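Lab notebook, design round three. We kept the backbone fixed and only want residue identities now. Task for the bench partner: fill in a sequence for the structure below.
Input structure tokens:
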């Protein structure tokens, strides 16, 4: 089944002649994740969640194709100072998304779901622009870690390389994790109240905020927590994909 829904491992023999309802695009980044998680954690997790969601709806006759993850994420000031942390400009990301949409549209696909794993990636403006050029192509954007209430599954959810990401990586790829090597993920907050409360925004200067690149202590992470959270996230995506697929015209999005 995975050869029909995961382009990273698929072959033309598995996709030829089949109709796909939705393309799913995992999007992450290339950046350090504390001292214990892979640089590509955001891409790995968004891809794995996407494949599980596609597999779940496949059982109900809905066929989605999960595209290979995009590893090109936008970074905060200070992050590019870290070895092999890669920052990609908004215009670079927009060019990538535009080419993906152009190819899918040419091939007859009309719906795309972005499953984002990196908080620095912002797609709303790009999607609005693409709606002008491709008015019959619908792009939905999401962040997988917001598809279920983290506080119901974790003791101390954080922001980056925390208990959430570490637990889910322990569930999917325990062979890649060395939890005993993790830093504590201590981080400084903003000193100005309006910034601390989220009323005003500036990008965080990463190397001034955290010493191990983590924000949130991963010490309490377990594969069991990750599994429970993933199941809730995948169910939420499956529910959305069923609704998304059933929409046949723009007016059906509204009631």
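Proposed sequence:
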């Amino acid at each position: 089944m995975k050869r029909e829904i995961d382009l990273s491992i698929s072959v033309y023999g598995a996709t030829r002649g089949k109709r796909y309802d939705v393309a799913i695009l995992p999007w992450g980044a290339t950046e350090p994740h504390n001292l214990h998680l892979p640089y590509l954690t955001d891409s790995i997790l968004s891809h794995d969640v996407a494949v599980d969601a596609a597999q779940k709806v496949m059982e109900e006759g809905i066929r989605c194709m999960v595209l290979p993850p995009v590893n090109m994420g936008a970074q905060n000031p200070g992050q590019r100072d870290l070895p092999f942390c890669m920052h990609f400009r908004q215009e670079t990301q927009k060019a990538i998304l535009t080419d993906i949409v152009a190819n899918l549209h040419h091939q007859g696909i009309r719906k795309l779901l972005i499953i984002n794993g990196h908080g620095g990636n912002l797609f709303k403006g790009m999607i609005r622009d693409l709606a002008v050029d491709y008015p019959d192509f619908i792009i939905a954007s999401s962040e997988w870690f917001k598809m279920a209430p983290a506080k119901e599954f974790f003791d101390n959810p954080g922001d980056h390389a925390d208990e959430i990401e570490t637990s889910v990586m322990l569930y999917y790829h325990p062979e890649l994790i060395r939890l005993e090597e993790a830093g504590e993920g201590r981080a400084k907050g903003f000193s100005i109240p309006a910034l601390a409360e989220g009323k005003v925004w500036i990008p965080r200067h990463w190397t001034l905020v955290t010493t191990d690149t983590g924000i949130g202590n991963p010490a309490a992470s377990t594969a069991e927590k990750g599994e429970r959270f993933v199941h809730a996230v995948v169910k939420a995506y499956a529910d959305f994909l069923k609704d998304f697929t059933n929409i046949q015209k723009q007016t059906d999005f509204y009631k």
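Keep this in mind before ordering anything: The chain has one domain: 2-253.
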